[in-house]
LysR family transcriptional regulator
Amino acid sequence: MLDGVSLDQLRGFVAAVDEGSFSAAARKLRRSQSVVSELVSGLEAQIGVALFDRRGRYPVLTTEGAALLADARNVIGGVDGMKARARGMATGLEAELAVVVDVFFPLEAITRAAREFREHFPSVGLRLYVEALGAAYQPVIDGRAGLGIVGSLPVMPTHIKAERLTAVRLVMVAARGHPLAGYEGVIPQQELARHVQLVLTDRSDLSRGRELGVFSPQTWRLADLFAKHAFLLDGLGWGGMPLHLVEDDLAQGRLVRLAVEDAPTDGLVLPMHAIYAAATPPGPAGRWLIERLRACPREVVPLSSGSLRRDDVASFPGHGWVPPKAWG
């Protein structure tokens, strides 16, 4: 009966294949050769299939044995993975880490961290959300995510704890052929108001009623940052973008940086935070990810940089000072 197949039998079968003989498999498993032979013979009897041709000096895998080898490996790997996950749970390691990432945060940094995360925590599943503005907080607030990598929010929920990580620089841009691209000097607000401003809108209600960085009464609102990027490239309006997302466009002349009245010439600096529910702080995997993301790529701005001025920082109550026209 197949229900009688044991893990020891499967390990003996796989070891015999990998080592090339029952004697070598016995040495690997630290068992006697007779025990390994009995394990494989017992497995063959249980499943009703000959796994090895034993007529030669060394056992040779049969066609049926070769077909079943991958199944045996999968069973062993699944059991070993379950045991590793259970050991991790016993020590507080998360079974799964659900993370929501602000769309402004460089995804290249997230993918590099995820690659290392897989090496450090192979038994921990990873669930990733990408959102913008208040919607990046929502999965943490409602418990769908245990950790958020987010920008600032006008009002920080009292049960959410935040840790500073780094910052992202935001710049105002327009397409090369846009009327504002040829404006010489700092563009006054009355001129900005004559053109459609592309504004990233919040999919949540957390910033309801707050207009942050809207200079123009003519606005097109998009809930997706990459759609906004496409609209900017097509000359459908002007607006703010994370510098790391438009560096190539600026270098190739597809977009032009705008000097905007009441905005720092070097762009705004948006602090980024790790957030989580105070009652359920991150476990070992979540804490590792927080510390890993403190090591920022070149696209982000270290908060310790002495070159940052107070007027450059785009932030909100609960995190710091609010500059005029901080968003767009």
Notes: The chain has ten helices and twelve strands. Residues 54 and 60 are 7 Å apart (CA to CA).
